[in-house]
Amino acid sequence: MAKENFGIKKLYACNYFFNPGYKKAVESIKLGASDYLEKPLSSEHLAEIVRKYKKKILNTEYGFDETIGTSNLMQEVFGAIKKAAVSESNVLITGESGTGKELVARAIHKWSPRKEKAFVIINCGAIPDTLLESELFGFEKGAFTGANYTKKGLLEFADEGTVFFDEIGDVSTLFQVKILRVLQEGEVMRIGGSKHIKVNLRVISATNRDLETARRRGLFREDLFYRLNVIHIHLPPLRDRKEDIPAIVRHFLEKHSVKRKDMLIKDISDEAMSILMSYDYPGNIRELENIIEHAISFAGGPIIIPSNLPVNLLKTPSQKINPSPKLKEALKNVEKELIWAALQRTGGNISKAAIELGVHRQHLQRKLKSLKYET
Ligand SMILES: Nc1ncnc2c1ncn2[C@@H]1O[C@H](COP(=O)(O)OP(=O)(O)OP(=O)(O)O)[C@@H](O)[C@H]1O
Ligand SMILES: [Mg+2]
To answer: Ligand 2 centroid to 103 CA: how many Å?
Structure first.
């Protein structure tokens, strides 16, 4: 792949240019070094420099923090994350399952002035109404049978930090009433308690449901909806931003290749990448991550080839034959299907696949190129 390691290696190589003399330092900067370090080296100074460049790297063209994306759609999301991070307003993150809602919520907290305080995740769908109050508000010792100790609620833990209401679209009416009151009054009371406890919360919520429609139908409280939805960030599905796939694949290769103790899996072939580009990812980035983990486990050499990918990828909806196709489209689908199957059988070897298909290698290569980024 052309863009190796997101440019990190180069940056560090330049940065760690040990140079005692000022003149040499100036020369090295002129030659392209990003910085210079003088001996004796203090660990604080080194840490400061690393922090500085880490921050730069986090804001590269490849994404923001751990959220990778090169598409215009994701650039807009990164802009919104940065704005949300420096604001105290509540944020609603929407998007299909696996699009990165939790990742974005964490990034907002991590880059906000509240970063040193708690980030408390409340998995709304998982708390039954019977446990709601004790989970959210906590209880005093003796409040009910079995309350042998005093317990802080999740909202109290989140004081001065960020509370992340995950799956907010799945909450009961009771849950909605309870959190609305906390947001309005800025205080909680433990079960069995007698005093109100002030809580300073920044709320981020996420849902893969259409909350707007739920609100219009009266299924989600309007007042709560508007309180939660001050800044809205929508994460587009991966199929609408396929240009993000190569950078995300690289990211997951780096992240998961350490799991192979016997071999360093460091790249992916163009053919395998073409297959990844033509799949629709109903499970979005979570599914892509699983695919890369799978491929790393099954790779027989340092480069991932088509046969290392899960078989279902070769049967994508886009490759299935449309029941009422135009002739040109139908022929293209058949062609794609045959090529993918030949590549699968030959472990991604283009020469062998070309022989199987009875075409010249160059012809197959041209075909692959022309089919490469089609969906
Ligand atoms: N843009 C991205 N770059 C890198 N990794 C990503 C990106 N988006 C998501 N991921 C990874 O994909 C996985 C799923 O992300 P996450 O849990 O944030 O999705 P979600 O939208 O909250 O899904 P769900 O609705 O199912 O809870 C995580 O491992 C996350 O780190
Ligand atoms: Mg989630």
So the answer is: 8
Distance from C-alpha of 353 to C-alpha of 28, rounded to nearest angstrom: 50
* pLDDT of residue 2 exceeding 60: no
| Tokens standing for residue 38 | 């003088």
Query: Which ligand 1 atom is the nearest neighbour of the CA of 206?
Result: 22
> Residue 208 CA: which ligand is closest?
1
Residues with Cβ within 8 Å of residue 88, at least 6 apart in sequence: 202
Question: Using a 6 Å CB cutoff, which residues line ligand 1?
Answer: 66-69, 95, 97-103, 208, 248, 251, 285-286, 289
Name the residue with higher pLDDT: 166 or 29: 166
CB proximity list for 41: less than 8 A, separation 6 or greater: 18
For residue 19, pLDDT over 70 is answered with no
**Token pair recorded at residue 127:** 């708390």
Q: Are strands 63-64 and 67-68 parallel, antiparallel or unpaired?
A: antiparallel
> Which atom of ligand 1 is nearest to 74's Cα?
1
Can the peptide bond before residue 237 be classed as cis, meaning omega within 30 degrees of 0? no
Determine contact, residues 37/49, Cβ cutoff 8 Å.
yes
pLDDT tens string 296-332: 999 999 999 999 999 888 664 544 444 555 677 667 7
97 C-beta neighbours (distance < 10 Å), count: 12
User: pLDDT-derived band of residue 233, with 50, 70 and 90 as boundaries?
Assistant: very high
Tokens representing residue 53 in the block: 């460049």
| Mutation probe of ligand 1 site: the residue of 70, 97, 102 with most atoms within 8 A of C-beta | 102
**Which ligand lies nearest the alpha carbon of 103?**
1
Could you list the beta-strand ranges (E) of the chain. Answer: 63-64, 67-68, 91-95, 119-123, 138-139, 151-152, 162-166, 187-188, 197-198, 202-207, 231-235, 267-268, 303-304
List CB-based neighbours of ion ligand 2 within 5 Å: 102
Ligand 1 atom closest to the CA of 289, numbered from 1: 12
CA count, 13 A, side-chain hemisphere, 40: 2
Domains defined for the chain, CATH in brackets? 4-58 (no CATH), 65-236 (3.40.50.300), 240-371 (1.10.8.60)
Question: Of 35, 13, 16, which Cα lies nearest the Cα of 25?
Answer: 35
97 Cα–ligand 2 center, Å: 7
